[in-house]
Amino acid sequence: MAASVAFMKPPAAYTTNDTFSSSSPVSTNHHETTDSSSFSKSRFEAYNRLQSAVVAFGEKLPIPEIVALGGQSDGKSSLLEALLGFRFNVREVEMGTRRPLILQMVHDPTALDPRCRFQEEDSEEYGRPIVLSAEIADTIKSRTEALLKQTKTAVSSKPIVMRAEYAHCPNLTIIDTPGFVLKAKKGEPESTPEEILSMVISLASPPNRILLFLQQSSVEWCSSLWLDAIRNIDPTFRRTLIVVSKFDNRLKEFTERWEVDRYLSASGYLGEKTHPFFVALPKERTEVSNDEFRKQISQVDSDVLRHLKENVKGGYDEETYKSHIGFGRLRDYLESELQKKYKEATPATLALLEQRCSEVTAQLNILDSKIQATSDVAHLRRSSMSFASSICNHVGALLDGAADPDPEQWGKTTEEEKSECGMGSWPGVISNIKPPNSTMRLYGGAAFERVMHEFRLAAYSVECPTVSRQKVES
């Protein structure tokens, strides 16, 4: 952790005037621009390394992150491929249905071909570079299947971490979550949709995460299946970026300017301060080169804007909405927003890391003194007898749920208990079950009584099927 603090420290020339977005005003001083870009890249790399350590060691740090949310067919996977700048058949492996993927994109001008590496399971290290697209997809699929077989579950919240270095991708990190589904696939438990929803809510709830919610343009705001779920997580959409995908499917419905402007404003549904992005991407899934794929993306952006100008009477309000139309605009905004969040969070993150380093150093000093004491056989014997006596004295009290040791340190809340045992929700129960004292940290008998109370609440919430009088009599 000490190493993390070292590489997170900002350079001496760090100022509040750093710029990140490619759409921001360009500095007239070339040296300033180069320094700003260097600071931005260093900060991005530091957060990527910190994120990898967090995943490997199960830590919880308030790192700014973008979390992609949406239904299974709302275009999340296509958007990720567009951001990467190359395809790897991500939709065919259905990575978004079973296990989250942390995608660390690194802009490297020297990487003319994409280089992808996967972080080893339960380790901070990355494996060998992977170049073939098919091998990337196979790795995601095999890792997902292996973990689900090991845990005997249909979905898992344990993420796969993939680092992609490419000359044509932005500096951006996105957590792709399992897509919302209404019905389990054949062979999956019926509770799979509820487990996915519960897991996605858990991933999206931390306030340090930016929510990237995708919904295809054919869905009306008033009938959106998943917008209410996002609203429950972020009621005012303060940290939610809404993206209307497959926007080209909607274009043919617009003939007048007022129709376009009304749709683009999302008036009455999202609030005055919420402005969605409208994106269309290539539909053809034929195998093309990476250069051709990026050209297709750019061409679709141009076609959408041309259609709105030439095929809609009066065009549209360009001054208000042009900055939110097209994949290129969304990409620039995401990169700029994440860099801004990184910069804002740096002081607090450094302070937290330094605190953790101090705590770990103190613990290591205590352990070191204990190790030194083991050379004294008499002292070791006395310590062993004292420890055994202490355990015997506390076993009974612990079973009764005593407050010694400190429950705040050793106890668990209801959500923490569920997370550690891999349980998303009670089978067959849709409503959110919260027993009394669910936010308190308990263990032993008190924790057992609470989970039994939670079981009773879950059982009572299940609606029993109607049984006819004839069936009872027979």
Automatic annotation (TrEMBL):
EC class of the enzyme, as a word: hydrolase
Keyword Hydrolase: yes
Segments of skewed composition (Polar residues): 18-28
Enzyme nomenclature, EC number: 3.6.5.5
Alphabetic keyword roster: Hydrolase
Region (Disordered): 18-38
Entry annotated with the keyword Hydrolase: yes
InterPro entries for this protein: Dynamin (IPR022812), Dynamin_GTPase (IPR001401), Dynamin_N (IPR045063), G_DYNAMIN_dom (IPR030381), P-loop_NTPase (IPR027417)
Chain ranges of the Dynamin-type G domain: 60-347
One GO CC term on file: cytoplasm
MF term (GO), any: GTPase activity
Full protein name: Dynamin GTPase
